[in-house]
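Technical annex, item 7. During the second reporting period the consortium partners agreed on a shared format for inverse folding records so that results from different sites could be compared directly. Each record opens with the tokenized structure and is followed by the designed sequence. A conforming record, contributed by the partner at site C, is shown below for reference.
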């Protein structure tokens, strides 16, 4: 009987003692929850920037964003193409932080921004020379803007009419939601494209099509045909252009002609925002204008937003007073 009471007392004593392993397990769980919470907080602290729009800009901006994120792990930049019109529509609908655009805003887009009380700010981060390329078999190396416009309007249909090898001209260009399409139509044609225009989904497709078509002509951004060493991609010929018959034919490979605005198809590349940027987005724009950012722009076949070049562009198409334009490149110089 005494033995039984002792055993019961021992069991009660054992139960009343703290379970060392249970306590240790609870401590581990507590530490794990704290660490998990800290990790979640770090994940939440990453600022996300969405960019959408121009296919001319998409590869360039992707490389700029990649380099910027390598310097700042607290930011994530998401980039999508689709065309300048798509990007601007997304910005006006509150679906993106930045709209990449290779053209200026239309009057309709500005009017819609006014209606929605959206204060559009245009950031000029680079520039692009629009290049006319032909298949080398065509036998043409220079054109006036008037001839080029008549070709794309369908008024000149045979290469022999402009001194080339006889044969029906094959027209290649972008789709209507492309900023390049709009810019080329306004600057070169001043009217609608020929119904014979083959509208391609992307600029790379235009280059490939012209390479395969012995009667092909297309218009593309300089970055799609010029390599980092200044050489031109094989399989196409870059056409020298004259603003009019009295002026000399100028190549987009002549830097002095690009800087001065003498080459007639140079345009600024925009990134539109709703209001002035702040935080990581402003830092990203400043990175694009930095020496590291501008080096990447040059390496990818694009141009810095040189003041004289932009002045020549805006002399032809004055900017809207409703849209403020910022150029961090000139601010740094």
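Designed sequence (site C submission):
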């Amino acid at each position: 009987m005494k033995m039984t009471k002792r055993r019961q007392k021992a069991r009660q004593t054992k139960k009343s003692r703290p379970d060392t392993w249970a306590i240790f397990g609870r401590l581990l769980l507590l530490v794990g929850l704290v660490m998990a919470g800290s990790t979640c907080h770090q994940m939440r602290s990453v600022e996300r920037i969405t960019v959408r729009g121009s296919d001319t800009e998409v590869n360039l901006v992707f490389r700029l964003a990649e380099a910027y994120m390598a310097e700042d792990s607290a930011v994530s930049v998401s980039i999508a193409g689709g065309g300048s019109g798509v990007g601007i529509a997304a910005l006006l609908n509150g679906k993106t932080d930045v709209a990449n655009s290779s053209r200026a805003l239309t009057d309709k887009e500005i009017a819609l921004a006014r209606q929605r009380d959206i204060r559009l700010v245009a950031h000029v981060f680079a520039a692009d020379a629009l290049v006319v390329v032909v298949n080398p078999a065509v036998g043409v190396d220079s054109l006036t803007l008037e001839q080029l416009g008549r070709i794309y309007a369908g008024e000149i249909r045979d290469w022999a009419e402009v001194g080339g090898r006889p044969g029906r001209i094959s027209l290649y260009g972008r789709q209507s939601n492309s900023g390049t399409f709009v810019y080329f139509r306004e600057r070169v044609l001043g009217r609608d494209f020929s119904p014979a225009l083959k509208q391609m989904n992307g600029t790379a497709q235009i280059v490939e099509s012209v390479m395969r078509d012995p009667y092909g002509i297309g218009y593309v951004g300089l970055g799609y045909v010029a390599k980092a060493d200044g050489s031109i991609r094989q399989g196409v010929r870059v056409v020298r252009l004259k603003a009019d018959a009295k002026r000399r034919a100028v190549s987009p490979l002549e830097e002095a002609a690009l800087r001065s605005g003498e080459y007639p198809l140079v345009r600024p590349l925009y990134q539109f925002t709703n209001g002035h940027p702040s935080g990581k987005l402003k830092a990203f724009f400043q990175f694009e204008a930095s020496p590291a950012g501008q080096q990447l722009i040059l390496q990818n076949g694009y141009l810095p937003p040189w003041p004289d070049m932009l002045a020549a562009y805006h002399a032809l198409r004055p900017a809207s007073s409703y849209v403020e334009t910022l150029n961090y490149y000139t601010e740094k110089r």
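The first strand starts at residue 47 and ends at 53. The chain has 13 helices and twelve strands. All partners now use this format for quarterly exchanges.
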